[in-house]
Design a protein that fits this description.
The chain has 159 residues and is of the alpha+beta class. It has helices spanning 18-24, 59-76, 108-122; strands at residues 7-12, 32-39, 43-44, 47-48, 50-57, 82-88, 91-93, 97-105, 128-134, 137-140. Helix content is 25%, strand content 35%. It is elongated and about 50 Å long.
């Protein structure tokens, strides 16, 4: 846990410290703390019976991109107190947590918006891949997408 810092970015094979990240985001100015958890489910696009996902990453580059996502969120929502973006790289079973985003701010709107921006944006530029395990085999996820820059996903101030 990064003591004295406003951002917590982590890519790790260890279980994600959801409760610790949520507590870390508490500040005297924060009246809102939003925690999003991405959980492994038993299906994906066009595939039922998923039993596990294996996440792999180019970890140094993933951390750099996650830091860009957080910086972009901060430029759009400067009142955000703390932001945590934590991603797990390991084989995860159904119901395990693969990603956590925590945002705190004086008011709920900014915390919700910053958290949503982070989770929606990190999926495309970060070099993190998932392999699906299901009853019939193992293969890379079928929900592929084009890579895009963090700035391309930045919302306008009017949104």
């Amino acid at each position: 846990m990064p003591e004295g810092k406003r951002d917590w970015i982590e890519v790790t094979p260890e279980p994600l410290p959801v409760e610790a990240a949520t507590r870390w985001a508490f500040t005297p100015r924060a009246g809102a703390v939003v925690t999003f958890q991405g959980i492994v489910r038993d299906h994906s696009d066009g595939r039922n019976g998923v039993t596990a996902l294996t996440y792999e990453a180019f970890e140094d580059e993933a951390r750099r991109i996650l830091a860009e996502v957080v910086a972009s969120a901060r430029s759009s929502w400067p009142s955000v107190e703390k932001l945590a973006v934590l991603h797990r790289v390991a084989e995860l079973k159904v119901s395990e947590c693969s990603v956590v985003v925590v945002a705190s701010s004086p008011h709920r709107a900014e915390a919700f918006e910053a958290a949503r921006f982070c989770i929606d944006t990190l999926k495309e530029p970060a070099p993190i891949w998932k392999r699906e395990h299901w009853e019939g085999g193992v293969d890379w996820s079928t929900c592929d997408h084009e890579l895009r820059s963090v700035q391309a996903g930045k919302p306008s101030k009017a949104s």
